[in-house]
Fold:
Amino acid sequence: MLVEMKPEVTVVIPNYNGLRFLPACLSSLAGQQQVNLLVTIVDNGSTDGSLEYIEENHPEVQVLPLSENMGFSAAVNAGIRDSFAPYIFLLNNDTELPPDCVQRLLIVAEEYSQYGFFAPKMLSFSERSILDGAGDGFLRGGAGYRLGTMEPDSEVYNQAGEIFGACAGAVLYRSSIFEQVDLFDEDFFAYLEDVDLNLRMNRAGIRGYYVPKARVYHIGSATSGSKFNPFTIRLSTRNSLYVLLKNYPLSLFIRFLPVISVYQACWLLFTIKKGQFPAWCQGIWQALKSVPSTRKKYHRIEKSALLSIPEFASSLKQAEREVVDSIMRRRTGLGKGNSLLRIYGFFFLRS
Structure:
């Protein structure tokens, strides 16, 4: 229930022409139990009547209107800066929450003060027995991966515990962590900005916790329209290199060069298969132009890092091992083989 008092949690929702999703999302937030919420919609210049709908149907929701589409990172940063609550719950607009979702996250956050962020179990909006994600892992070649994605929900994903990262589509952060690692990088615009934040938090010694009893139902790729189009391919290609340039010291570039090469080559072949080679080229060119400025950001991160480079490397390797295990489970469930993944694990993931 939403009440007029100092909120425990600010829910920050970026919105761009998401009118069709707002009724389910905002109604489910209005029904949250035993927690004081302030819901903030940061609108990226919508023209579909989103603002009018909110004003008429959800006057309790705070709206921060932006004059144009400034991207995911800029939108959520505006909401975070405006908040005065001890917790920030980032949430995509194409979601729906059971009444106890935020309460369950908050209870765990209050109990486990050593953790900085808390990820719910994300499930498919249309097939609620299928996982959308159970915390995030990391591929050292330059990408994040939602653990469990497209797998049937199972006991494997009912175990609460420490995680490497979280999808920014649904995650509870302690507000204080942003003072330590800064906000989302607005140069990313959209895609992999949460991967970058996960890496920065990891290097700063901030750990996350997975809360499977807190559930979120997610449609996915709602704003961009599809998973694979020139816009998503260009930004995903560029931002993958941003992630590496911004977070890897030179020693890790050299050490991880084989896995970087494997991942980037597979990504290139995938974009060609999807007919998106021109978009891939645009992403590569934009990343190369940004090398000097992106490396400056790395040096700023390095100054405040708590994990040593060997500790950081070990954490990344473990995060990738969890990703490969998840992919193999999904493929096994579909009756597909895992020979190539086993070979990859033998060469690159052995202790």
